[in-house]
Amino acid sequence: MLFVSLRDLQWRRRRFLIGVLATGLVFALALLITGISAAFHNEVIRSVNAFGADEWVVSARATGPFTTPVFFPQSAAGQIAQTNPGVQTAPVVILRSTVHTTRLRDLNVIGVAPGGVGWPKVHDGRLPRASGEMLVDHSLGVALGSSLSLGGTRFTVVGRTDGVSYFAGTPVAIISIGDAQRLALGDQPLASAIIVHGTARTLPAGLRAVSNAAAITDLRRPLKSATGTIDILRVLLWLVAGGIIGSVLYLQAIERTRDFAVFKATGVSSRSVVAGLALQAIFLAMLSAAVAILFAFVLTPTMPMRVDMAGSTYVVLVVVAIAVGLLASVSGLRRALSVDPALAFGGA
Amino acid sequence: MGADLAIRDLVIEYSSGGYPVRPIDGLSLDAGAGELVLLLGASGCGKTTLLSVMAAILTPTSGSVRVAGTEVVGLKGSALTQYRRKTVGVVFQAFNLVPSLNAIENVMVPLRGAGVGRREARERAVSLLERVDLGERLHHRPGSMSGGQQQRVAIARALAHDPPVILADEPTAHLDYIQVEGVLKLVRELADDGRLVVVATHDERMIPLADRVVNLTPRADTSAREPVRRSLAAGEVVFAQGERGDLVYVVDEGEIEIVRRRDDGTKELVAVMPAGSYFGELAPMFGLQRSADARARGAAVVTGMGLREFRERFHLGDARLLGDAAD
User: Fold this and answer.
1) Total domains present in chain B
2) Residues B168 and B312 placed together within one structural domain of the fold
3) pTM of the model
4) Which of helix, strand or coil describes residue B327?
5) Do B84 and A4 touch (CB under 8 A)?
6) Do A266 and B110 touch (CB under 8 A)?
7) pLDDT, tens digit, for every residue of B80-131?
8) Residues on B contacting A at a C-beta cutoff of 8 Å
9) Number of neighbours of residue A302 by Cβ within 10 angstroms
10) Which domain holds residue B146?
């Protein structure tokens, strides 16, 4: 009996195609915001790990190295290295600033001691060796050799990283700690965090160690409301998609009432009738999911934010699409089930 | 292949617009394999309703319908499905083919629905369509076929499981006279093959083909009758809703109230007929059942007369009667 459902889809192909395109677009939006949410999630992990720290040391009054700049003497880094044999440390200053490229951009600025530990991997170019040089993430969109003004001081881009950003895609720029102290701290020898290689068992008073996991959690906190909103939007988009599929199938069930009555009157079981309609729902949902994946491929490069699409996202899309399709078709299925075969005796 | 039909004391009553309607009231009928039975009657007389009961699609109010030894009333579950598949084939009014399917696929539907394999169902469908002379139209959809061709596809579909009983509802209703000829021939052939064919129709052209005609709308009795004068006590009933009757009544003295019973048991006063007026003419004229109770408001006298006497007394034509009368 499945051939009847497929023929019906061919028969009403224009409406079916409109339904597929509309549902596919909604699924694509759900896919894209899922990718954006995943990018928020992933960039934090990538950025914290980029510094190669085993742990971070911050002021006891700070919640984490990236979100709460509470400064303490830079010399604490040396003390920790001395009192914890085998441990390497690097003091850092973490700031936020703005920079003019083609437009005004926000920038996460991190000052790190040249030649020491704590420098992320360079994607192209080289690490800064001297004052006035900058390593910046690709996402800022500036070329090697570009000159940027940061708080009135000019920096030359000598290297670029790939995927080091946080606070919803805000790129990270890394300069020497001395430059960072000059920019924001009036040249005082202060640091807001210490990158630690190894495990520091003894810490100076007023400081505490923060694991990478804790730093990641702390860094995700400011985006919680944004990711929560995205999650709500995603559910709403699933509902809209369900609404489209549901209305297409309900309309189908209404228009085919006489057909269903004839089927039942000629001894076709209600189960076969319902299975045929459910097959249409699954077919519509799967085709919409395929269209959504195509849309997502086309739209992703046009997004101003990074969109991370894992293979599992597509699998989840197909599974959720089928579930949404089946749930949405319940009203149509109920309608088909309730059709009285006596209607088959009605005239034209 | 042979199947006998035995209907006993069949009553079908349903609600229509809030009023109880009883199109079939105490019908009994016997027919045998190889017979073509016509259920003849005007619209609304219960022809299609009776077919629905025989097809086990509608449950009657009371009575018994036995087809090929199976009691149809009360069939449920798989027994009901098997009955619809194997015992009866139905040719619906207006063909009721699925517009998205071509001729072969329309005939395949009941076969595939019963679990017959695709290839076997296809071969059977092609063979049936060739039998009804549609070998050239196998891949045409209903929209590109004439009414007669669609009706023949519908007949092929009804024959899908080779049932011993074929029920056809107004098979000539949507056809021109050229198409009717082929369909009538085909219907007769179905009976000649040993099937019991029951056709509901108001097309009297089919009468010569039939082995048995069941007229569900009794013809008006226009024979001369002596008027009957009745004296009624208050509340006494002249006739009751749902009864058949062949008399028209004239109020000689007193008043008669016309009261219609609703589904929920309540009653609705339709009219009060004063002395000199007449009532109850539509039922004998058109073979309909009485649509309301008629009873005396107080002491009253009425005269019941046949249609011929009624027309003579009131010098009325049919058109005038239709416009003025209360039944």
Assistant:
1) 2
2) no
3) 0.72
4) coil
5) no
6) yes
7) 888 988 899 999 888 889 999 999 999 999 999 888 999 999 999 999 999 8
8) 48, 51-52, 55, 57-58, 81-82, 84-86, 89-90, 92-94, 96, 98-101, 105, 108-110, 112-114, 118, 157-158, 160-161, 169-170, 173-174
9) 7
10) 5-215
